[in-house]
Amino acid sequence: MTARRVVVTGLGAITSLGHNVKEFRESIFAGRSGIRPLTCAETSKLRFTNGAEVVGFQPEDHFDAKLLDQLDRFTQFGLVAAEEAVRSSGLEITPEVKPRVGVVTGAAIGGKYFEEQAYSGLFANTRRPHPLTIPRGMSNAAASQIAMRLGFTGPVLNVSTACASANHAIAQAVMMLRLNVADVILAGGCEAPLLPGHLKMWEGLRVVSSDTCRPFSKDRKGMILGEGGAMLLLEDLDHAKSRGAMILGEVAGFGMSADAHHLTQPSAAGAAQAIDAALRDANIQPAQVGYVNAHGTGTLINDSTETEALRIVFREHADQLAVSSTKSMHGHTLGAAGAIEAVATVLALKEGVLPPTANFTEPDPACDLDVIPNEARRAQVEYAISNSFAFGGLNAVLVFKRWD
Amino acid sequence: MSETIEQKVIQVIAQSQKVPVETVTRDTTFEEIGMTSLDALALIFDLEEEFNISIPNEEAMGLRTVREAVESVTKLLGEG
C-alpha cells in the first residue's frame, strides 16, 4: 500500500488583515500590516500599545445570541475560519462523510476572555464566576464547537504547544490522514490573547515591541501580539480527486523536535533538526525549497537563531532562499500562528507571489538572508517550508508543495 | 405564591434564555423553551444573582418548570 498523500482543498482565515482569506491575501501581497494601536484593552499602564487586533468583527452577525453565550472569542475565530474553509472546499457534509471528517485545532492559551473576567470578579469579591466559564474556556472548546456546528464526528482534538500549536496540529492531522483514521481533517488554530491580564503578563517577559514588528531588521524591538484564527481543509488526495475538489496545494511533510534546552531561549540546533526532519519526511533535497515562511517573531534572539538554523540545514542554498515573516503583518497569534502562516504559504505557492517581510528598515548581519523586504515578489516556487518554534523549545516545521 | 416573585422569575428566564417574555408562563416547562442542561445552569446562576439566594445542588438539578423555579425561589426567600 502506498502512503496516502495529503492535499489542501479549503482555506479560512480571520485576522487583523480582514475577516476572510480574500482580504488576508490582498494585504499580505500588498505588504500591508494589520498592526495598530490596541482598542480592545486599556494600554495606558503597559509598556506597549500596539497589537494585531481583529477589528470590526461583530460576533452577532455570525452566531445567534444563545450560542454566543457559550463562545469565547478564540472559539468565535475558530468557527468563522472553519466555516470559510469548508465553504471554499465545496465539501458536502453528508451522513456518510461526517464520521470520516475530523478537526485538529491548535490553541496555546485557550479561552481566557471569560476566565479573566471570572478571576477579576472573584478576587475583588464583586462577582461570582459565570457557571459556563470552564466549558467556554477549555482549550478544546473551539475544536468541539466546530465539530458540533458542522456535524463532524471523526477524530476531534486540540494540540497545545505554545507558539507551535497550529503547526503541531497540522502535523497531527497529516499523520491521521496518512494512517487512514479520517479522509478529511479541518486543521489549524485560533487564539484571542489581547486581554488585560494576558497583555500584562506578556509585558513582563520583555519581548513585546514598543513600536511594531520588524523581523530580521537590525532595529527590531520584539514581537507584536495578534489574535485570529485560520483553518485548512486537509484531505486525502484520492478522496479529494473522487469528489472533484479543487486542490490548492499539498502538505508534503512535517518535522518536529524539542530543543531540550531552555524554557524560553531558542536553539538553532533544535530548530535545524525539525527543518531537516521535515525535508526528509517530504523526501526532498534542501535545494528544492524556494521559500521559507519564517517563525520570524521579530525578537532579537529568535530571528538570528532562526537564520543560523536555516544556514545549518540549507548550507550554500541558504543564499538562494527567499525568506519572509508574515508576522510583520498579522502579528504573533501564538497558537494560531502556524495556521495563518500555512494559509499564507499555500497562497504564495499557488499564486507564484511571495509575501514580504513588512516594516523592514535595515539589514542585520546576524540575519543575512534574503528576507523579501517590504515588497512582495513574483516567483514560481515548487516547495516551501513554514517554521514554528515555541516557548518550551518545541519545534514544528511543515513542507508545502505547489499543486500543478 | 407571590405574584411579584413569579413575574421576576419569568423575566429572568426570558432574559437568560433569550426568549420573548410573553412565551413564558408559570406552566411553561424548560424543555418547551428549548433549554438544555447548560442553559439550566446559566438560569440558576441568574436566579441566584437576581434574588441573592443560593440554590442547593439537589434542588437545582430537580428544576424542570417555571412553576418549580418560582416555588424554589419563594421557599429560599422564606416567603413560602
Question: Could you explain how this protein is built, in words?
Answer:
- The complex is a heterodimer of chains A (404) and B (80).
- Chain A is an alpha/beta fold.
- In chain A, 34% of the residues lie in helices and 19% in strands.
- Chain A is built from 13 helices and 14 strands.
- Chain A has helices at 21-30, 65-68, 73-89, 113-123, 133-137, 141-150, 165-178, 196-205, 237-242, 268-282, 300-314, 327-330, 337-351; strands at 6-14, 36-37, 50-51, 101-106, 156-159, 184-191, 228-236, 249-258, 289-293, 322-324, 353-354, 377-378, 383-390, 394-401.
- In chain A, the strands form 3 sheets. A 10-stranded mixed beta sheet of chain A has the order 5-4-6-7-1-8-14-13-9-10, with helices on both faces.
- In chain A, helix 3 crosses helix 6 and helix 10 packs across helix 11 (300-314).
- By secondary structure, chain B is mostly helical.
- Chain B is 59% helix and 0% strand.
- Classes of the chains: A alpha/beta (404), B mainly alpha (80).
Short structural description:
The complex is a heterodimer of chains A (404) and B (80). By secondary structure, chain A is an alpha/beta fold.
SSE blueprint and pairings:
The complex is a heterodimer of chains A (404) and B (80).
Chain A: E1 6-14, H1 21-30, E2 36-37, E3 50-51, H2 65-68, H3 73-89, E4 101-106, H4 113-123, H5 133-137, H6 141-150, E5 156-159, H7 165-178, E6 184-191, H8 196-205, E7 228-236, H9 237-242, E8 249-258, H10 268-282, E9 289-293, H11 300-314, E10 322-324, H12 327-330, H13 337-351, E11 353-354, E12 377-378, E13 383-390, E14 394-401
Parallel strand pairs in A: 4-5, 4-6, 9-10, 9-13
Antiparallel strand pairs in A: 1-7, 1-8, 2-3, 6-7, 8-14, 11-12, 13-14
Chain B: H1 3-17, H2 37-51, H3 57-62, H4 66-76
